[in-house]
Specification:
Its main location: other. The chain is mainly α. The chain is built from 20 helices and no strands.
């Protein structure tokens, strides 16, 4: 809150918190730096009485700020951020706003979503691979995949490895990224720390690549970390994705899958996948499958997942041989 009326920023914050009441004020103060709590607390202790004019001046500040925003909650995040930074100062106020507002989508990332892959590639081409990786980890996976496609093979491998190993992006790296994007996009919203599931992010990005690039990158990752490569592969194509395989591909897959593991795998599958599989079987084969599934009764989840992985391994093998299309945007041709 600006100090234009009703006293200094700390005095106005103290007064407003007193008007909120003990319970609500405590909820706010638990997010405030101890030093700032001391400052506001001192200001509270100094308040002996409050006349209507002074109280109304503080409330008017809020009313005027709210009038600059749209109604029905739209723009509230921006209002709260301005409130905190005006009251506590730019740095501490921004920190408090980040805590309170949580993972609000940043303006930088919203701006990036409007750019074509060519423009993004041009923007990032001179940056350090780690900065590129952090930026792509924040993009929509389809958009990041489109950018990755246009990169040189060695850079593709490097970027994928960096994203796959991400867990939490350091604050210093986020500030560096913010500086770069401010310069190139002319935006000002502050970035916050963000947790990243690197392997899952990479899996989503790589689903948009062509099979040749996909295979090469996974092999490159495997040379450095084989278990990470396997994890990415598991995340890239899930059992539920079988529903996207064309019918001819499902029929070929069924010919290659052991009749013993299919009932086990389908026990844990959603109805859509079951319908897809059974819809590509003869009536007799379908009836036998259903009877087998019923006869097996409850099964361990680990056994079901193992059976599903076996089927996915067969599907990947057939896809690598060009015999089926996994339904991830590739060609529908068969060889």
């Amino acid at each position: 809150m600006a100090a234009s009326s009703g006293g200094s920023g700390s005095e106005k914050a103290a007064l407003f918190l007193l008007m909120l009441g003990e319970e609500q004020a405590a909820k706010v103060l638990k997010f405030v730096d101890p030093h700032e709590v001391e400052v506001i607390g001192t200001a509270m202790a100094a308040i002996r009485s409050v006349d209507n004019e002074r109280a109304e001046a503080v409330v008017d500040d809020f009313r005027m700020a709210m009038q600059s925003e749209t109604s029905l909650g739209v723009g509230v995040h921006g209002y709260v951020r301005k409130l905190f930074t005006s009251t506590l100062g730019e740095q501490k106020g921004a920190t408090l706003a980040d805590r309170v507002l949580g993972d609000e989508e940043s303006q930088e990332m919203n701006s990036l979503r409007w750019l074509e892959p060519d423009a993004l590639l041009h923007m990032l081409k001179d940056e350090h691979p780690q900065l590129i990786a952090i930026t792509m980890a924040h993009m929509d996976q389809e958009q990041a995949g489109a950018v990755l496609k246009q990169m040189a093979p060695d850079l593709q491998d490097d970027i994928v490895m960096r994203i796959a190993n991400m867990q939490t992006i350091p604050q210093a790296a986020m500030r560096q990224l913010q500086t770069v994007l401010k310069k190139k996009l002319s935006v000002t919203t502050t970035f916050k720390n963000r947790k990243i599931d690197g392997a899952l992010t990479v899996a989503g990005i790589m689903n948009g690549l062509d099979p040749e690039a996909e295979t090469r990158i996974l092999e490159s990752v495997a040379k450095k970390n084989e278990s990470l490569s396997e994890k990415i592969q598991d995340l890239m194509f899930l059992f539920s994705n079988l529903i996207n395989i064309p019918d001819k591909g499902i029929q070929l897959l069924l010919r290659e899958v052991s009749s013993d593991i299919l009932p086990m795998a389908l026990k844990g599958a959603d109805q859509g996948v079951r319908d897809k599989i059974m819809g590509n079987m003869s009536k007799r084969a379908r009836e036998m499958l259903i009877e087998d599934m019923d006869a097996r009764g409850p099964m361990k989840l680990s056994d079901v997942e193992a059976a599903q992985k076996d089927i996915l391994a067969v599907a990947r093998k057939l896809a690598e041989a060009g015999q089926i299309d996994l339904g991830r945007g590739g060609s529908d041709d068969y060889v």
